[in-house]
Amino acid sequence: xxxxxxxxxxxxxxxxxxxxxxxxxxxxxxxxxxxxxxxxxxxxxxxxxxxxxxxxxxxxxxxxxxxxxxxxxxxxxxxxxxxxxxxxxxxxxxxxxxxxxxxxxxxxxxxxxxxxxxxxxxxxxxxxxxxxxxxxxxxxxxxxxxxxxxxxxxxxxxxxxxxxxxxxxxxxxxxxxxxxxxxxxxxxxxxxxxxxxxxxxxxxxxxxxxxxxxxxxxxxxxxxxxxxxxxxxxxxxxxxxxxxxxxxxxxxxxxxxxxxxxxxxxxxxxxxxxxxxxxxxxxxxxxxxxxxxxxxxxxxxxxxxxxxxxxxxxxxxxxxxxxxxxxxxxxxxxxxxxxxxxxxxxxxxxxxxxxxxxxxxxxxxxxxxxxxxxxxxxxxxxxxxxxxxxxxxxxxxxxxxxxxxxxxxxxxxxxxxxxxxxxxxxxxxx
Length: 430
Hints:
The chain is of the alpha/beta class and 430 residues long. The chain has helices spanning 9-17, 44-48, 83-96, 114-123, 139-148, 161-168, 173-186, 205-214, 244-261, 278-281, 316-319, 329-335, 337-344, 360-363, 368-375, 385-393; strands spanning 53-57, 100-104, 127-132, 152-156, 190-197, 219-224, 264-267, 299-302, 307-309, 322-323, 396-404, 415-422. The chain is globular.
């Protein structure tokens, strides 16, 4: 399958060989957070919404320092939950109605109680999955995960070896990821693959699918690299909105290939929206298309120190609703303003192009994480296939330009401007 490369050969070589930005791993001291007080009472809508899916950063400690890591993982937070506190949080998730807990990091296996947490998740009748970069997923660790009861391990593979090792900032990381898939499969665990899609990895997607088919993966999730954390330090790697025009036909063909092979391919929440391939990419959705952001509706995000968000990727400063050391998980879920945000949002929140979009009532600017990472607030998201197509018909395109760097903390953002320009060499279509 031919895939158009968003980079010219010279541009690709320059990005591959560019030195990584000079950032030290952030030292995260325990900080006293200043959260808005919880509302006095829960509302009917808050009690009706229940998180079926929780994504839990069990520790921020990591054995990689990937160039597109939003949390800038590496060192553990100074105030991470103890194993006993983590086990109590599992019980609170079960009582709140969570059905699946995905452990992420950092690297979850670097938390001293990771297998005990998995055991407690399974004891509570919830599904247990784990996401890993794979560097330290040895055969023994895979067997430990299997004994604890983990049901599926998703390994991140972001292109062919050269691309993956550049993005993961470590030669040999691709080989380690492939070994992790094999170790987990040999331990009797289902395996899947996660892939970040950016200007380096986009052309490699067919080869990634070839790899996961050879390794017997049952699932593949793809999502766009979001310009947050370390990814904000390397703007040349981030897709431009107009790159979606070439990307989406490729994703649709890969999805059809996955269907034929019996592999579940899931397009991440920020892969959207309402273009001509939506029904192909969202065939797993009952509606046939992606609705608005699920943060605080069906999704729960947890940081390793017990901070609670509606989505694990949202910036900490504005989107944490509370901490489980101070309030119960139920109280935070039902009564904190940041987690109520998506329950209360209306079309009035939309601005820019999204404010006038035909699909605004359904989409509401799609992924809150993408819009907030770019502009500091939700409501306008240029990473939309429908929008890129409409702009293209008018002979226009949008380009994001970094105008100020990110400060260097987990989930931080740079400052970006959105430029609307003529498509080079094109006249508007009638």
